[in-house]
Design brief:
Layout: E1 2-8, E2 12-15, E3 22-24, H1 51-60, E4 64-67, E5 91-93, E6 98-100, H2 106-116, E7 119-124, H3 131-142, H4 148-155, E8 166-169, H5 184-201, E9 206-210, H6 222-231, E10 237-244, H7 251-254, H8 257-278, E11 286-294, H9 299-306, H10 325-340, E12 345-351, E13 360-362, E14 368-370, H11 374-383, E15 387-389, E16 392-394, E17 397-400, E18 403-407, E19 409-416, E20 421-428, E21 435-442, E22 448-455, E23 475-476, E24 481-483, E25 486-491, E26 495-502
Parallel strand pairs: 1-21, 3-4, 3-12, 4-7, 7-8, 8-9, 9-10, 10-11, 11-12
Antiparallel strand pairs: 1-16, 2-15, 5-6, 13-14, 15-19, 17-18, 19-20, 20-26, 21-25, 22-23, 22-26, 24-25
Bound molecules: alpha-L-arabinofuranose.
Length: 503
């Protein structure tokens, strides 16, 4: 089977915002406790943070990490997580039916962000709390000193403000599962008032208002329209979330899900423009896709705790999806969509980073290792920075429940002008056919393949575990060659490829 791709130097989408390779840490399961933080671990630093985990996070070059939730934030009192540890209260977390020790709070998380070289993106509680909580938290985090909350921060050991720029106005407020769930108008008014107060403190903050929890919500996409009608002039991004699942064990349909993702992005983009026109506004609002990933492998095993029968455990192993090779293809496809929609998607966070539906897994007191999905995320984060190219892809396709003519070849391309390289990320969705791709490089001088990584496996269900950490891993590809401005590569069935070209 054959396919062709054309990449032209001047045919670009826009610069990919580095923050589309962001991630997320919630006080949920073992993301924090025995994930990033485990004071008794042999690799722990002086703050109790696991060095082995920090090293893997650094390797991913994660630009931004959203914190502290998620559903958790909707009943979270940030004051519980500051001050001397021994005086911090243990609270019941209603979102995940667990106990929260508060051993980690904003100080510990901020220090960890500095250690791993990432930026904080904080969420305020608009579920059980509101404007006051948001303005006080902001003052605590960002004011230099000389006020009640900033002096409290200094007393608690942090002199310099953290100057956090990105702030989420609550989380998934459309969801009835959310503590303090609201309807669109109610939330829109609260979010607008909160944003106004936060902007009175600092007009340059980047504020993110909640869009729908997913595109299957009954209130979608009216939710986006109504919320934006209340907040358009006060926010910079609207957040979208989507989780991917293959419950029916139908790989063809599963791998077509990024059609649904792109329709979701296109619909919300259209809604943004509709409200912009209605408001006769000059400003632009973008999309923060601040929760996305595969999530379904752990659903059954989590039920006991989530239904309350497990009591109120501290840091139980919740949402611990063990990812397989098929999920590598899915994550590669999702990231391709974000690169192709980089004109509107300016922030995206793989949910989450460690243990909880995450690319990094740990064992308490044991190893940290890379799950299968670590790799496509790694390749995109490291090599997907630059200008997204508007590729012309000509590939045979198939019909799926998510749309017709889903191209077997899904590709994205990024031009890094600084180091004079191109990176192509390619997924072959075909179950049995190797596809020979002729990729025409137009407007670029010269061209030689400098790196070719391939991920393929005979078993779609193959996984990495503590005992076998490298069952699914990339291998050096061979046979990609450039002749006369044309890159030719044969991509095996069900495979992920990353090809870098020096131009
Ligand atoms: O990431 C897990 C959960 O998924 C988050 O807490 C919530 O926002 C979403 O429903």
């Amino acid at each position: 089977m054959k396919a062709s791709v054309t990449a032209h130097k001047d045919y670009t989408i826009c610069k990919v915002d580095d923050r589309v390779y962001g991630s997320f840490i919630e006080h949920l399961g073992r993301a924090v406790y025995t994930g990033i933080y485990e004071p008794d671990h042999k690799s722990a630093d002086k703050n109790g943070m696991r060095g082995d985990v920090a090293a893997l996070v650094r390797e991913l070059n994660v630009p931004v990490v959203r914190y502290p939730g998620g559903n958790f934030v909707s009943a979270y009192d940030w004051e519980d997580g500051i001050g001397p540890r021994e005086q911090r209260p243990t609270r019941l977390d209603l979102a995940w039916h667990t106990s929260e020790s508060n051993a980690v709070g904003v100080h510990e998380f901020a220090d960890w962000c500095e250690t791993v070289g990432t930026e904080m993106m904080l969420a305020v509680n608009l579920g059980s709390r509101g404007v006051d909580d948001a303005r006080n938290f902001l003052e605590y985090v960002n004011h230099p000193g000389g006020s009640y909350y900033s002096d409290l921060r200094i007393k608690n050991g942090r002199k310099e403000p953290w100057n956090v720029k990105m702030w989420c106005l609550g989380n998934e407020m459309d969801g009835p599962w959310q503590v303090g769930h609201k309807d669109a108008a109610e939330y829109g008014k609260l979010a607008a008032n909160t944003a106004r107060a936060m902007r009175m403190f600092d007009n340059t903050l980047e504020l993110i208002v909640c869009g729908s929890s997913n595109a299957d919500m009954a209130s979608y996409p009216d939710w986006e329209r109504i919320v934006l009608e209340h907040t358009y002039e006060h926010v910079d991004h609207i957040s979208l979330h989507m989780y991917f699942a293959n419950r029916e064990k139908n790989t063809a349909n599963y791998l077509a899900l990024n059609r649904k993702l792109e329709t979701y992005i296109d619909t919300v983009s259209a809604t943004i423009l509709q409200v912009k026109s209605k408001k006769r506004s000059k400003r632009d609002v973008y999309i923060s896709f601040d929760e996305w990933n595969v999530w379904y492998h752990s659903n059954k095993q989590d039920r006991v705790i989530l239904e309350g029968a497990g009591g109120w455990p501290h840091a139980p192993g919740l949402l611990e999806d063990i990812y397989n090779f098929e999920d590598v293809l899915q994550v590669g496809l999702i990231l391709n969509s974000f690169i192709r929609r980089s004109d509107v998607v300016k922030i995206a966070c793989i949910a989450q980073l460690v243990n909880v539906i995450a690319p990094i897994m740990t064992e308490k007191g044991g190893d940290a290792w890379r799950q299968t999905i670590y790799y496509p995320y790694y390749f995109a984060s490291i090599f997907g920075r630059g200008t997204a190219l508007q590729l012309l892809v000509n590939s045979p396709g198939y019909d799926s429940v998510h749309g017709d003519n889903i191209a077997y070849v899904d590709a994205s391309g990024v031009h890094n002008e600084e180091d004079g390289t191109l990176a192509f990320f390619v997924v072959n969705r075909h179950a049995t056919e190797t596809i020979t791709i002729d990729l025409s490089l137009q407007g670029f001088a010269g061209g030689s393949v400098i790196e070719h990584q391939v991920m393929t496996h005979s078993n779609l269900e193959a996984v990495n575990t503590a005992k076998n950490q490298t069952e699914v891993a990339p291998k050096k590809g061979s046979g990609a060659k450039i002749d006369n401005g044309q890159l030719t590569v044969a991509v095996p069935p069900f495979s992920y490829q990353m090809i870098r070209v020096k131009v």
